[in-house]
Predict the 3D structure of the following.
Amino acid sequence: MESKISIQNLNLSIGKNQILKNINLDIPENQVTIILGPSGCGKTTLLKCLNRLIDLEENVTITGSIFLDDEDILHTKSDLPGIRKKMGLLSQRPYPLPMNIYDNIAYGLRINGIHNKQIIRESVEHNLKQVNLWDEVQHRLKEPASRLSIGQQQRLCLARGLAVKPEIILADEPTSALDPLSSTAIEKKFVELKEEYTLVMVTHILRQARRIADYVVFMYLGEIVEHGTADEFFNHPKQEKTKAYLQGIFN
């Protein structure tokens, strides 16, 4: 198993509260890695470390390393936009830009130096097709993105992220605000996208993890309790906390 991201001895505190405790983890390339665990266990904080959004928090103390392409992105002197460009982020609730559907995707291309109108048009169409949204919006591209349903907005945000050609897709409870049909569409797309991307998704929904995970990381109180392939985790768990979680004894 070839790793895309390697996390070594990661510890993080906000003020006097330690959120992450000695995290050591290799995230496999071109697979769907699911980070599971009850609320407040540090899942989202770990995700924010990967694209350095944790830098926006106040009073953060962080030690350890996160390697991407042999570069320690936690302590790199490279520009943060370059790191974040490699990692598309899908949040719990979709946040389309306050502009029309077309420009939601075109905007990211333009700020990355692409101004050729034909290239932009082709990219908009390609990425909307990537997320199975083109047929629904091809005649509405100049309408505000805010008029789309929540499920459509989430797929638009995914298309926007894919347009700038990331290497990794990070997703923080991306289906929590969606109806079942929209959730299924996102899950199906994630499974397809792993052929080209590495996906890391935070969720607390066991059924969802069972459906799409290739690799599972189980966290509890800021620590990694257990991690392994989906088969190992769900069918042959080693830790008692893992077994209790899978049995629904705590959420």
Q: What stands out?
A: DSSP finds ten helices and ten strands in the chain. The mean pLDDT is 92.
